[in-house]
TrEMBL record:
One Pfam entry name: Semialdhyde_dh
Domain (Semialdehyde dehydrogenase NAD-binding): residue spans on this chain: 6-141
Native species: Cellulomonas uda
Protein name as catalogued: N-acetyl-gamma-glutamyl-phosphate reductase
GO molecular function, one term: NADP+ binding
Length: 356
């Protein structure tokens, strides 16, 4: 077992990099080394992450192999398309370094999916950082944890993907929902879009409305969710996916529904979700009748899940809430990193959130 580790964070001026640093500051074995940025290299971290007082005086280095080399762990919190080249150069320098990619570059196993949704050359496929991902035939997740144990490469899932996968996969793995008839509609907080300025993200525009985006099957997380549900045992997946920006800083509330396989006893539904998550430290199926809210997950590495059967519609309805920056990114990454390093999976990860 590796104990203390040094860690560099690339993209430290951004939302995901900042959240990674917040969690690493609370992790008993992490020693924070280089913090890097792009246009903001040379400035103090405190200008970009004023909530991280312990690191306020750190100067952001440029994101280069030289600044990132020499650490046990490198976390890449860069725009998608940027991490592939950096990771390839790091592999030449320090073969044993554990590289954690918070971006999308190494998530998809099918290069054609990558090209279709991202339009650039595929960087490759790494072990996928969702420890709770069910594999076909499993009622509780063990195979994905085995994949992550001892790995030196982790592709962290997209935040929407985490929410929708956790909501739907118990029914898919149990074979009681039709994977070719899935619908997901999400309410998304603004931090999911990163810090870069876009007119529709201005407070004067966004504070007073809910606005859909990437409508009509174009969102880049669709192939990633389908990939996960195929791992869970679905031969074919058809998913209608619609995210909606709502005026909150953090959080995702994903409502995902699926047609119940005809003849399925509705009691089998609750039992599939219960058995999938009974032993999970971070994924909590709420008591019947209680519904997840994003507020109850803020700052915590938890996913709150509920499931119900709409008998008139013949559909299973799942609702999942996560904090996009914690379980949806940095927390999920740290959970997978703990497994990779042979540390207890839950080490340093917050179970309790902040409220109100
Ligand atoms: N926000 C979220 O909820 C989630 C984010 N992610 C992923 O994490 C990654 C980072 O996202 P997020 O933090 O939101 O984005 P931000 O825009 O907030 O931050 C981007 C970071 O990358 C740096 N950067 C920008 N351009 C380049 C470049 N060409 N080369 C190297 N570094 C660059 C920026 O530095 P500088 O400030 O100097 O420009 C900044 O540190 C993305 O891949 C995103 O998809 C994944 C799941 C959820
Ligand atoms: C509000 C918002 O725009 N959210 C982003 C989520 C980004 C994310 O999960 O990251 P990756 O780009 O790394 O997949 C979106 O839906 O595209």
């Amino acid at each position: 077992m590796r104990m203390s580790f040094t860690v560099a964070v690339a993209g430290a001026s951004g939302y995901a990099g900042g959240e990674m640093l917040r969690l690493l500051l609370q992790h008993p074995e992490a020693r924070i080394g280089a913090v890097t940025a792009h246009a903001n290299a040379g400035t103090h971290l405190g200008e970009h992450q004023p909530h991280l007082r312990g690191l306020a005086d750190r100067v952001l280095a440029p994101t280069t192999p030289d600044t990132l080399a020499g650490h046990d762990v490198v976390v890449l919190a860069l725009p998608h398309g940027a991490s592939g080249a950096v990771a390839a150069e790091l592999a030449q320098r320090d073969a044993g370094t554990v590289v954690v990619d918070l971006g999308a570059d190494h998530r998809l196993s099918d290069a054609a999916d990558w090209l279709a949704y991202y339009g650039s050359e595929h960087a490759g496929t790494w072990p996928y950082g969702l420890p709770e991902l069910l594999h076909a035939g499993e009622r509780t997740a063990a195979a994905q944890r085995a994949t992550l144990a001892g790995t030196t490469r982790i592709a962290v899932p997209g935040c929407n993907v985490t929410a929708v996968t956790l909501g739907l996969q118990p029914g898919v793995a149990a074979g009681i929902v039709e994977p070719t008839d899935l619908v997901a509609v999400l309410a998304n907080g603004y931090s999911g879009a990163g810090k870069s300025l876009k007119p529709h993200l201005l407070a004067s525009e966004g504070l007073g409305m809910a606005q859909p985006y990437a409508v009509g099957g174009s969102h880049r997380h669709i192939p990633e969710i389908a990939q996960n549900l195929r791992t869970a045992g679905a031969p074919d997946v058809t998913l209608s996916f619609t995210p909606t920006l709502v005026p909150m800083a953090r959080g995702i509330l994903a409502t995902a529904t699926a047609r119940l396989v005809p003849g399925t006893d509705p009691a089998a539904v609750r039992s599939a979700w219960e058995s999938a998550y009974a032993d999970e430290p971070f994924v909590h199926l709420l008591p019947e009748g209680q519904w997840p809210t994003t507020a109850a997950t803020l700052g915590a590495n938890t996913a709150l899940v509920q499931v119900a059967v709409d008998e008139r519609a013949g559909r299973v309805v799942t609702v999942t809430a996560i904090d996009n920056l914690v379980k949806g990114t940095a927390g999920g990454a740290l959970q997978s990193l703990n497994l990779a390093l042979g540390l207890p999976e839950t080490l340093g990860l917050p179970l309790d959130g902040v409220a109100p």
